[in-house]
Amino acid sequence: GALGDESCTQGFLADVINARAEEIFEKVDQELRKIDRSGLLPAGAFLTGIMFLVSLALVLWAEPIAAVFNPDPDLVKMSATFLRISAVGYLMAGLTVALQQCITGSGDTFMPMVIMLLNMWLIQVPLAYFLPRLTGLDVLGVRWAIVIGSATALTAYIIYYRMGKWQKKQV
Length: 171
Description:
It is built from 6 helices and no strands. By secondary structure, it is an all-alpha fold. The radius of gyration is 27 Å and the shape is elongated.
């Protein structure tokens, strides 16, 4: 009698506790899905902030930085222009690196490889060849091709990240 009731009560309580625990874990999981668990927000903000400071320094002090390596005025002028163009690309570099590392860190290494290969061979190399020849940019077209490639890679990473396929990667 009493022993059977007690075990029935213990079994019932165990079932209730398990059911409640599953409910709680499900609610926690639902809430966590709403939060960026990838680390992208802090890493992206930190790296973008650093790259902003680097870009600002390059824009403001391009000539003195270039003159450290060679004092020739013509070379300093050309190098300063290259540094300023590079600064535009560096503004995108922080978030690009954060996205790429977030995706590869999840175990999805294929898509970052595809993005970089397609970007290199379909965007950067053709633009580096054609921009100097078809525009008045001359050698600066090569540097602008790299910046455009950086923007393209960042766009591709943002799209792939937002698709969420990298989160389903089984390692």
